[in-house]
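Work Package 3 (structural annotation) set out to generate three-dimensional models for the target panel prioritized at the project kickoff. During this period the team completed the workflow that converts sequence records into discrete structure tokens, so that structures can be stored uniformly alongside our sequence database. As a representative example, we reproduce one entry of 249 residues exactly as it appears in the project archive.
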Amino acid sequence: MRGSLGTATLVASLLLVLPSAGAQCALRLDVESGLVGSGYNDVRIPGDTGTLFSLSEDLATDSAPYFRARLEYAFGGRHAISALYAPLTLTAAGTLADAVVFADAEFPAGTEVEGTYTFNSYRLTYRYTLTESDRFEAGVGFTAKIRDAVIRVEGEGQSAEKANVGFVPLLNFRLAWDLTDSVGLLVEGDALAAPQGRAEDVIAAVLIDATDHVRFRLGYRIVEGGADNDEVYTFALLNYASAGVIISF
């Protein structure tokens, strides 16, 4: 329900800010899938009194399939607005070597536990193309991100979780090179660091044209970041093996 509401809100926001149909424009759907694996995923909740432990080292986190979709509207030659829906859930399991205080629960050493790491992302982005030629494009912009995160630990009759929904402002960038008439390179992402925490979501990929309106993408995506305060300490690194298709209308 929360995911559906977030998606509907993004689509509605995109429609509200679209320019009139008379403007020069292009609509593009970007769908991406693949496998995501956890690098580090360190958690301490509460941030000042909980136990620091790792969902990927103290427990084992399996790689999982993922999906994300972006709808982009380009207009006026240099402007683009897009909405992104990027859900993510990873599960972990194992036996705790030491006692862990997490949220309002204490799990003794030797407890078999399951952990769930959910980090759904909804983003609205505006980007301005700084330069564009037959072979090269560079653009920068701003992203308004809604973070819908839940970390849950359960085992031996106990269950505790920390949920957080918040707004994160990010800087957006895009660099694209056409190496030939049908093959190109792409580096694109959102990123920002501040005293409260940091967030990076960047992809490096090869683009392959199938038709004038369909382009395939193969690459590597990295998502990293977290926050450190009295309420929560959490930092994660996620590695994505990515495949996608971009359809222009």
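Residues 2-248 form a domain with the Lipocalin fold (CATH 2.40.128.90).
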